[in-house]
Amino acid sequence: MANFDPFEKEFRRQATGLRRTPASRSWNRIERRLDKRRGGGSSILGIRPWMIAALLLLVAGTTIMTKMASDRNNPLAQRSQFIEELSAPYTPMENFEPVEYLNGAPDGGEEIIQDADFRDFVVSREYRVNG
Amino acid sequence: MTEQDLITGCKGNDRRAQRAVYDRYSPVMLAVARRYTARDADAEDVLVTAFFKVFDKIASFNEQGSFEGWIRRIVVNEALMLLRKKHALKQASELDDVNPATFSVPASATARLAEADIMALLDTMPAGYRTVFNLYVVEGYKHREIAEMLEISINTSKSQLILAKKRMREQLEKMGYTASP
Q1: Distance of residue A17 Cα from the nearest chain B Cα, in angstroms
Q2: For residues B2 and B21, what is the distance between their CA atoms, to the nearest angstrom?
Q3: Predicted pLDDT of residue B181
Q4: How far out from the chain centre does Cα B26 lie?
């Protein structure tokens, strides 16, 4: 202990006897910090587990979206194209040949299924295509 | 509850024991913090941080020394950290040649000091003077220890103490405290 002069001794005696009442909110602040420590969970360099989980989710989501966009066969990836086409005016393809569709049918016309039940029906004159 | 019960309770994270420790020691510790900081709000901040550390690090208290002394050291350290953060300890001057007797303060003047005046006396001093004065006179640290704590030279610590006492003598005279004939 250092050698104190009489003034220092007296001052020390008086100063160590000082008391001050803290504000009530001080204990609340301590309690909040204690609660936070208790329920805060572990952290590595201030990084919480939920932060890591959120980052992983974000990376996984971005990867999936990128893969879907690059996959041309995926209908979800093409969906936006169809929406754009709907808003555009309809223009038939220049090389459209209706004949191609009729080639598959017998005698170059519509394929008519001759059902046994309707074989004896006669089509009314006004509904006939060819006379 | 005995002090030992309180320590054991705090080590078990018992909130009632923590509250009891706070109720018992916070008035003394707030006064300690206030002697180092010039503002009441800063002293409250120091108190909150210090008591949180007390409860957080209670496992490191080896129960050999005084519990109050251990808390007091944490409070003083927190106060010094706050002062460092505010760069309040940077202006340290060194006296080349000084006779300490020139700045001695009559003890009879101090004997009649009111509590409020003790704080007022400390508040009028620059942070450097006040800190060294508190650490040396009230806490009882040696100049070598103070120099290490504040990262200053031993001579600077001695100079700050002498200048603090000089300032205190002037203030005591202004406040009407004079040596008894």
Answers
A1: 8
A2: 10
A3: 45
A4: 14
Interchain proximity B137–A16, CB inside 8 Å: no
Contacts of B2 (CB under 8 A, 6+ apart): none
DSSP B17-37: HHHHHHHHHHHHHHHHHHHH-
Euclidean distance between CA atoms A64 and A53, whole angstroms: 16
Phi, psi of A44 (to 5 degrees): -115, 115
Q: Between vectors from CA B122 to CA B121 and to CA B125, what angle results, nearest 5°?
A: 95
| CA proximity to B153, closest of B122, B132, B125 | B132
Task: Name the interface residues of B facing A (CB cutoff 8 Å).
Answer: 13, 15, 18-19, 22, 26-28, 30-31, 34-35, 43-44, 47-48, 51-52, 55-56, 104-107, 109-111, 113, 115, 118-119, 134, 136-138, 140, 142-143, 165
Every domain of chain A and the residues it spans: 44-69
- Return d(Cα B52, Cα A31) in angstroms, integer: 8
Q: What is the pLDDT of residues A71-119, one digit of tens each?
A: 766 666 555 555 555 666 666 666 666 555 555 555 555 555 666 777 7
Q: What percent of chain B has pLDDT over 90?
A: 64
Q: Closest to B138 (Cβ–Cβ): which among A5, A16, A23? A: A16
Structural domains of chain B ordered from first start: 3-85 (1.10.1740.10), 100-174 (1.10.10.10)
Nearest to B31 among A9, A11, A20 (CB): A20
